[in-house]
Amino acid sequence: MKNDLSFSFEFFPPKTPEGAQKLRDVRTRLATVQPNFFSVTFGAGGSTRDGTINAVKEIFAAGLEAAPHISCIGITKAQIAALLDDYRRTGIRRIVALRGDVPSGAAGGAGDFRYASELVAHVRESTADWFHVEVACYPEVHPQARSPQEDLQNFIAKVRAGADSAITQYFYNLDDYRRFVDEVRRAGCDVPIVPGIMPITNYSQLARFSDACGAEIPRWIRRRLESFHDDREAIREFGLDVVTALCERLLADGAPGLHFYTMNQAEATLAIWQRLGLQRGPAAGPRIAAGA
Fold first, then answer.
1. Has 134 been annotated as catalytic?
2. The pTM is what?
3. Are 68 and 96 in contact (CB under 8 A)?
4. pLDDT tens by residue, 23-79
5. Rounded distance, CA 240 to CA 218, Å?
6. Which of 10, 118, 134, 140 is catalytic?
C-alpha cells in the first residue's frame, strides 16, 4: 500500500464554550492517529464564519494542519479576500472551496460568486499556488443538478479552474463512487477524488442528513437499522461493520484516502480506523498496516 494516501477528519465549528472544549478533547484524541489534516465547515452564507476561523486557528496553533471551508453563496469578493488574507498570514496552506447553501429564509444567493468554480478561479488569481484547494463532488449526483451530465461538467469546471483534489459527499454504495471516478477519468481529469465517510451511530440523524443532502441510504441498510429500533449498541456495531467494509473495499480499489465526517465525535471514527489497521507511515502520512 502506498504511503501517499490522504486521511482527514472534518469538524463543524462549536457554538458554545462547552462545545469548544468538547471539540478540543475530540481533536486531541483524533490527532493521535496523525491525519493529514482537519477541516472545519462554514455555515450557509458564512453564518459560522467566526467560529470556523477560531476553530481553524486553534487547530493550527496546536501544530496540526487545518483546512477551513469557504463557501461563496452570500459572501462578497471583499469578504473572501479578507478571509484568504487572514489564512495566509496565519500560515494555512489548504482550503476547501464550496458553493455552499443559500441561508434559510434568504430570497437568493446574494454575493459576488454563483458557483464554486468561480471561487476556485478567484483563489488561484489572487493567491496563485499558496493554497492546496479541495472541492466537493457527488458520486450520487448533486441534489440540485438538472442531470448527471450537468453535475459532471460542473465538477470538471472546478478542476479546470484550479482545484487540486476533491472530497466526495458521503455514500454507502461503492458502485456509485466507482462509476463517478470512471466518468471523471474519461473526461480527462486525473485529480485525486477522496471518498467522504460518514460513520453510522444514529439512524434518525443519518436519515435526516441524507434526505437533506441527497445521499442515498441503501434499502438493505435502512431496513436493518430500522429493525434495531432504539438499540444503540446494535446500531453502532452494525454501522461499524458496514462502514469498515466500505472503507476496506475503497482502499483495496485504489481510493487515494478517506475523509471522515466526524460530527465532532471521536469514538466511531477511531473504531473504524483501528479496524482498518491504519497507522502512520515513516515519512509520508498514514498507510495500511502490514498484514491488515
1. no
2. 0.91
3. yes
4. 999 999 999 999 999 999 987 555 577 899 999 999 999 999 999 999 988 888 999
5. 16
6. 10
